[in-house]
Amino acid sequence: MIYPAVRSEAQEYLKLDEKLPIIWVLGGSQGAQIINDVVIDTLPELVKNYQIIHQVGPKNLKDTQTRILGVLSDESSRGRFKPFGFMNGLDLKMAAGAADLIISRAGSTIFEIAAWGVPSIIVPITESNGDHQRKNAFAYARAGACTVIEESNFKPNILLFEIQKILNNPAKMADMKSSAKAFAKSDAAEKIAEEIIDIALEHED
């Protein structure tokens, strides 16, 4: 379990503007190509009002840095996008402390997000073993802690709409935070954890 840093400390570490909301994009340690692509395509609109921390994966960092030169027209807007190839424990701790919203896959990271009490948008893998990612995502959504966008609907306009719907609504954010923390302590979280362990054991056979 990674415990989040104090928000002010996290903002200083990541060189973030304390006045702007912070979105943290997690694509897994290798990066998720569909998440990377859609987020980068949405950046011109996102950086108008938000800052983005994005774990793109080690193999995708150089390509991402090249792509944003074409997507973001000036240094000011580029400064609001913080790409990481790999995030070490300290980076993760700081990002967790700073984030107002997390965009992530539906694997075991859900438990970290729930424990941090951060509102989230979850993008499950369409075809996973036993459809577990979709089941996990919708179980978490039913608890009121996240919004789910399926891969087939994961487009820049839909992503931007869902982000705005959450970050522009303080009451909704407060509800999602409390729902996330409640989920972290619930039986539902334990059941999903058991499913993830079972999947991992199946892959070892």
Structure, explained:
- With 205 residues, the protein is an alpha/beta fold.
- The longest helix has 18 residues, at 187-204.
- The mean pLDDT is 89.
- It has 10 helices and 6 strands, in the order H-E-H-E-H-H-E-H-E-H-E-H-E-H-H-H.
- It has one domain (7-204): Glycogen Phosphorylase B (Rossmann fold, 3-Layer(aba) Sandwich).
- Helix 6 crosses helix 9 (170-184).
- The radius of gyration is 16 Å and the shape is globular.
- Strands 3-2-1-4-5-6 form a 6-stranded parallel β-sheet, with helices on both faces.
Rg on CA atoms, Å: 16 Å
- The SSE order reads HEHEHHEHEHEHEHHH
The assigned structural class equals alpha/beta
Within CATH, the superfamily carries the name: Glycogen Phosphorylase B
Question: Which secondary structure elements does this structure contain, and how are they paired or packed?
Answer:
Elements: H1 7-13, E1 22-26, H2 33-49, E2 51-55, H3 61-71, H4 75-78, E3 81-84, H5 89-98, E4 101-104, H6 109-116, E5 120-122, H7 132-142, E6 146-148, H8 156-167, H9 170-184, H10 187-204
Parallel strand pairs: 1-2, 1-4, 2-3, 4-5, 5-6
Helix pairs in contact: 1-5, 2-3, 2-8, 6-9, 7-10
